[in-house]
């Protein structure tokens, strides 16, 4: 097996991971939120990316795999309280907007790239904790694994949620079928519960569905147009799957979250890390031909 990691200096320094035997390819841009911008299997793009938005550092990225931390979703008025003080934290947190640092890379048994994000004065203004995130992207065969480690460097308990917002490229949404392990979802726009039997109405302008009671640690969808199945596996830190798309856009998002929207206020499925302790988790995405 031949694994390589090279660099391209585009607008941002881009790390290019390859599994040459499997004809698999991954691009990671540390400076733009540690984001994965491209994943290809046999030359076929798995992810969507709005490249014009991506070029503008003032805009959030639409595409690839943005990292959500220390919240998933938004807070009412973008506000939460900690020890009697109000803090403002915008949707999905700040990890997707900050530059990450590459700390390690290896190509022995897979293409592995490790990135780190440390708390700083700006993060402490909106989230009063010291932390370190260590993520390793692992490309091997038809699999993309994301190993995560969250370390609390604070002298007090640190509450957080973490997640991913992958944008999967699709061409014809009517040719998609879903296997999401839940019988109901919360419409995040109307705040109403709906029963779920595997279908979505793609005539709606927007679908924003939170599956809050998932019964197993795997979700998938099949795409008969591209003749592939995407399988997302996640460990027990992840409690919520969000499905999001906009009408007439050629992407869908199937997002593993460790806690639902507004967990920093409600406490629902919120993770609390003891001082100077850590929590690890894995999310894996696989592409199967159908």
TrEMBL record:
UniProt xrefs under InterPro entries: Aldose_1/G6P_1-epimerase, Gal_mutarotase_sf_dom, GH-type_carb-bd
CDD domains to which the protein is assigned, alphabetical: Aldose_epim_Slr1438
One GO BP annotation of this record: carbohydrate metabolic process
Superkingdom of the source species: Bacteria
One Gene Ontology MF term: isomerase activity
Protein name per UniProt: Aldose 1-epimerase
Species of origin: Microcystis panniformis FACHB-1757
């Amino acid at each position: 097996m031949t694994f390589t990691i090279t660099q391209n200096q585009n607008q941002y320094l881009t790390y290019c991971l390859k599994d040459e035997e499997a004809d698999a390819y991954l691009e990671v841009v540390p400076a733009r939120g540690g984001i994965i911008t491209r994943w290809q299997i046999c030359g076929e793009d798995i992810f969507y990316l709005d490249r014009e938005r991506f070029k503008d550092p003032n805009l959030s990225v639409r595409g690839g795999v943005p990292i959500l931390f220390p919240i998933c979703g938004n807070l009412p008025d973008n506000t939460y309280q900690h020890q009697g003080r109000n803090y403002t934290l915008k949707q999905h947190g700040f990890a997707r907007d900050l530059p990450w640092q590459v700390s390690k890379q290896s190509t022995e048994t897979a293409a592995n790239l490790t990135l780190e994000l440390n708390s700083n004065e700006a993060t402490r203004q909106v989230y009063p904790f010291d932390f370190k995130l260590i993520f390793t992207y692992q490309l091997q065969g038809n699999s993309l694994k994301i190993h995560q480690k969250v370390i609390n460097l604070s002298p007090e308990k640190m509450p957080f949620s973490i997640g991913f917002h992958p944008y999967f490229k699709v061409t014809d949404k009517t040719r998609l079928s879903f296997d999401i392990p839940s019988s109901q979802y919360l419409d995040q726009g109307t705040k109403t519960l709906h029963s779920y039997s595997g279908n979505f109405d793609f005539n709606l302008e927007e679908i924003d569905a939170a599956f809050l009671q998932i019964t197993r640690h795997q979700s998938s969808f099949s795409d008969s147009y591209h003749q592939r199945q995407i399988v997302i596996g996640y460990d027990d830190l992840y409690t919520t799957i969000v499905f999001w798309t906009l009408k007439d856009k050629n992407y869908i998002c199937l997002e593993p979250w460790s806690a639902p929207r507004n967990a920093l206020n409600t406490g629902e499925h919120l993770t609390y890390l003891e001082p100077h302790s850590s929590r690890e988790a894995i999310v894996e995405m696989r592409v199967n031909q159908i």
